[in-house]
Design brief:
Residues 107-119 have a biased composition (Basic and acidic residues). The protein has 696 residues and is α/β, with parallel strands linked by helices. 21% of the residues lie in helices and 21% in strands.
Length: 696
């Protein structure tokens, strides 16, 4: 018989030779705690104590490494949204570790009829985790200011699977990502944070298991507290927790922040026909948005079959407890919220004053970390770019689309490009937000890699098993005359594509806002035209480190650009430009130039055929102050971006803008002339970018 134990904290808590189990299940008629021994034999013990809708008990002799789960009894009544079924073994929502794979059992034909087959052979086990006595030492968050941040999005497994300097047994793991050879590359590159694709415990969807593949990206969460066990070389009975901590500690020691891509908008249980693994069997009506007209169905704002109901007090508590756990116990530095608009939905509409946003802003732990929104979902009114509250930054897909269109020559002028280069004030300035609210990116895990962006006109997703129907058709890509990376064998195509890679990188890394790089883009990573490789855990998605030699010039350019950005605050503005001087008689903080060397006028801004733009950033026009109130000054720079196919002559602005210009980067010439006099006429190669430092 268990001891009564306590209703708080939720989950499994080990102390003094016993483990307390507590699970919130307000509508349950009975809750059974199920223990599994090393031979997977099951022992069911009813929890007899209930306090504040929490079923609880304390078990002496049960300690770390113990496998367990729950069976929850209650009414089966899909018409009212209740789907209790004690035949289904359930994962603890607060499990700190989860062991085992989801094995797809035979499907059930009617989701509104109860399936009484025992699911225990098919589902993972929750694991009791004790105090691992992890020594954090002097670990401290790097706390890189937003304006100084450069984000590097990577996949824990795919990033190291082919790394020649990582021992084979460590590849694809947290320990592999913490290897010095990996960290050295990140530090040398100049990024300040790694954003990890989902590492909360996830499982693969039944349809992927049936076709013999798996969910690789990880956007199918089962456990909000548990590090994904498959990324652990140490073990899966709690060892994954310590290994994850060691990875974070190693990255912090190198000055790198750790941001988690988290999926709270939906779970792995999918729609009514999906597997019952956790939340559905505990309290379906509390954890999910149900169709108000037919509660047997789910309101799907995510495209996955369900939407997690963060507006419910207990579901919200679960999410907040999880987020705080990752910060306080696992020392992560921030979060990127997948389909964040779904989290802001109250009943059905997106509400930026709703419970989720309000609680985040009030929380003394979470309001201090980095918060990044993917500011959309697929529901009505779900596109919310520019609408999130002050604490939040956002993935800016308008930056992505505008920059892609410019460099493929289809931007329709340079008006929108100027907004994106200068921090997207049209999106973020009206409500008092700062330029760093914009997470600027050209590529991400979802879509073409940078190399594929310049090598393919069409997606090539045949390997996904969906007859190339999946993935977006709006790629805004250009193959430069021939489809596929094989066309690099043509010297002319290869040279133009390489120049375009340099153009994209220069535009991204010198724009105002926070740049985000997709892992491997600095070394020419390709997925051979697959723009939705979520189910491919193979060399299609694993970073090929041998490309570092072939694309050494691109890798060096990224290092140079990020060093330039780090050294010059003029590229890291904390306030929006105003197009005027901050001191009497001084130069404007930002100025825009036509090829004639004169400032752009209204006619030029509305000329949809214009493909050349000069951006002047004044080093004495920085509006923010230093830590002690001191004025910040810097060098001034002139950046030309020319997307036309033909060469164009531009006049370099003379006094008061400069007396001469030093060439910093020319994407068309690896060995450009070093200096030009102000007022000189310079030829920009077709489709190239020129960065000049002004002498005043």
């Amino acid at each position: 018989m268990p001891w009564p134990g306590h209703w708080s904290p939720l989950g499994a808590t080990y102390a003094d030779g016993a483990t307390n189990f507590a699970i919130w299940a307000p509508d349950a008629e009975q809750v059974e705690l199920c223990f599994f021994d090393d031979d997977d034999n099951e022992t069911r013990i009813p929890l007899l104590n209930r306090t504040f809708d929490v079923w609880h008990g304390r078990f002496p002799g049960v300690g770390p490494g113990q496998h367990y789960g729950y069976r929850v009894h209650g009414p089966w009544d899909p018409a009212t949204g209740r789907r209790f079924n004690p035949a289904k073994l359930l994962v603890d929502p607060y499990a700190r570790a989860i062991d085992g794979e989801f094995v797809n059992g035979d499907g059930h034909s009617d989701p509104n009829e109860r399936d009484d087959r025992d699911s225990a052979p098919w589902v993972p086990r929750s694991v009791v985790v004790g105090d691992d006595a992890f020594d954090w030492g002097d670990d401290a968050p790097p706390q890189v200011p937003w304006e100084n941040s450069v984000i590097y999005e990577l996949h824990v497994r795919g990033y190291t699977m082919r790394h020649p300097d990582v021992p084979e047994e460590l590849r694809g793991t947290y320990a592999g990502l913490a290897h010095p050879a990996v960290i050295d590359h990140l530090v040398e590159l100049g990024v300040t944070a790694v954003e990890l694709l989902p590492i909360q415990q996830f499982v693969s969807e039944p349809h992927l298991l049936r076709q013999g593949s798996a969910n690789y990206w990880g956007y199918n969460t089962l456990g909000f507290f548990a590090p994904h066990a498959d990324y652990s070389v140490s073990g899966a009975r709690g060892e994954q927790v310590a290994e994850f901590k060691a990875m974070v500690k190693a990255l912090h020691a190198a000055g790198l922040e750790v941001i988690l891509d988290v999926v709270y908008n939906h779970t792995a249980e999918q729609g009514a026909g999906g597997p019952t693994l956790c939340f559905r069997g505990i309290d379906n009506r509390a954890y999910y948005h149900l169709d108000p007209d037919d509660p047997s169905k789910y309101s799907d704002y995510t495209g996955t079959g369900n939407t997690f109901k963060v507006s419910h007090p207990h579901a919200l508590r679960l999410v907040m407890d999880s987020l705080r756990y990752w910060v306080t116990e696992m020392h992560v530095d921030g979060f990127r919220f997948d389909l964040a608009s779904a989290l802001a939905r109250s009943m059905h509409d997106v509400d930026m004053l709703g419970s989720f946003m309000t609680v985040i802003e009030q929380d003394p732990v979470l309001r201090e970390v980095k918060l990044i929104a993917e500011p959309w979902d697929i529901g009505p009114g779900g596109y919310q770019v520019g609408e999130f509250p002050h604490l939040w930054t956002e993935w800016n897909d308008k930056f992505r689309n505008t920059v892609r269109d410019h460099w493929r020559g289809l931007a329709g002028g340079v008006h929108d490009l100027a907004f994106r280069l200068a921090g997207s004030s049209d999106l973020y300035a009206d409500d008092g937000r700062r330029p760093y609210a914009s997470i600027n990116f050209v590529t991400a895990h979802d879509g073409f890699t940078l190399r594929d962006l310049v090598s393919y006109n069409e997606k090539h997703n045949d390997a996904n098993g969906e007859e190339n129907r999946d993935g977006t058709d709006d790629n805004r890509s250009w193959n430069h005359g021939r489809e596929g990376i094989e066309a690099d064998a043509d010297p002319a195509i290869r040279e133009l594509r390489r120049r375009q890679l340099r153009n994209f990188m220069t535009t991204l890394l010198l724009s105002t806002g926070v740049p985000m790089l997709a892992a491997g883009d600095e070394m020419g990573r390709t997925q051979w035209g697959n723009n939705n490789a979520y189910c491919l855990d193979n060399e299609t998605t694993w970073v090929d480190w041998s490309l570092r030699e072939e694309f050494a010039d691109l890798n060096q350019l990224v290092q140079k650009l990020l060093a330039l950005r780090a050294q010059h605050p003029v590229f890291r503005q904390r306030r929006f430009f105003e197009g005027r001087s901050i001191i009497p008689g001084g130069r404007k903080d930002i100025a825009w130039f036509a090829p004639t060397g004169t400032e752009m006028d209204d006619a030029a801004w509305h000329d949809e055929t214009r493909q050349t733009l000069g951006m002047y950033l004044s080093g004495d026009g920085i509006r923010s102050r230093g830590a002690h109130g001191e004025r910040i000054t810097d060098d001034s720079f002139l950046v030309w971006l020319h997307s036309g196919a033909d060469d164009v002559q531009v006049v370099l602005p003379a006094a008061p803008w400069a007396t001469s210009y030093d060439v910093v980067i020319d994407t068309a010439d690896v060995d450009p002339p070093e200096r030009h006099e102000a007022g000189a006429t310079v030829t920009l190669t077709g489709r190239s970018c020129l960065v000049l430092r002004a002498t005043t």
